[in-house]
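Worked problem 6 (solution included).
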Amino acid sequence: MLKTASQSPSSLSPPQLLTSLAGLLREWLPRQRWFAGKGGPVTDLAVLSTTALHPGCLHLLIRTSHAGQPDDCYQLILGVREYLPFRLQHAFIGRPDTGPLAGLTVYDALLDPRSATLLLERLRAPGTLGPLRFERDARTMVPEGLEPRLLEGEQSNTSLVYGNSFILKLFRRVHYGINPDLEVPRALARGGCARVPEAVAWFWTTEPHKMTLGVLQPFLPEATDGWTLALQSLASGEDFSDQAYELGRATAEVHLALTRAFATEPLDPDGGRRLAAAMTGRLEKAAAQVPELAPYMPRLKAAYGAVAARGLGRPTQRIHGDLHLGQVLQAEQRWFVIDFEGEPARPLAERRHAQAPVRDVAGMLRSFDYAAYTRRPWRAQWVDRCREAYCAGYAAESPWDPRADAELLRAYETDRAVYEVLYETRHRPDWVPVPMAAIARLAEGS
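Solution. The predicted structure is:
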């Protein structure tokens, strides 16, 4: 138990909490799917802010450091109890041996239905709680008493579904500034784009800086994600071309809506050179960590060089930034685009910059390749048909045909594959052969 009544978890300062939590978090964090620093031990921990959401439930922002890596900031919601009931054993983090929480049980409160429900109540009733700010779109009513459940699956964040009506995404790795996954859906909703679920409620913090922490959106209970649909097509032997064509149309619709919501940037005559230099830099950094990339570097750099020579050719604009089959949903034969956070590993400012829409196209083309690689033998014709249909669907809705910019498209596919190699090396080593096979094909094509 706590040593005195005044030492409730909500009254403890960040340094006091750290004396009890540091050891537990150093062991627990690297085991979490959303934790980016799996490559080495956590060398330093600091509690940046702490807020009591309700008795026994703490909202924390912590800073972690890793050898040779930039510091990261993470959002945690922890529960503290004397004893953990059996129904919450799966949420157990540990029992501190030292500090004011010594002997108590610390657990992941997002797995506790009571804490998840109370978090939704905060979003239903906008207001402030210490440094936390809760806001809601007045046009949408959120009923009380919606039963929460954790959305399973591999995610770089944590998502809670409430009563099959709403889904709350809590950003685990948070950054200074507004998150695109709040900014973009709000802007598109104002413009009348029906391809993207609107933001219903959200919360953010003012300490240590303004950061977006979570977004509540309508949940599509009957929807199936594009990755699942593609795998079903591959398993059954059915064609996926019609689906890919409609997905291309949906992508173009969202891109056009983004130009209306955020406008476009003037054509940069030096944009191709800068893009090629950035891609080359990412390739060199990746090769330093994944030596298997080294034999392909000369040809891959040649693909980037072609972009430097010819330029971008079109104005840049806001885009999705991490488009693939897992970021699209189909409900009632209609495609929806979700998760505008962008690649979490890249700086937030970079993810909010205007970019070439071909980057999103390249991401989806790479995703078709990923899906096909999950089955043996690899069905190259299935991939080729999906690629062609997707680009044709895009061109049907857009004044621009991605197939007309083959060199730029190849460069972006290459850049995406390099990112995938590095990501899989860090998080899913068994999947490294998938992007490496693409690297070999792209290098040969160059």
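Discussion: Residues 1-6 have pLDDT under 50 and may be disordered.
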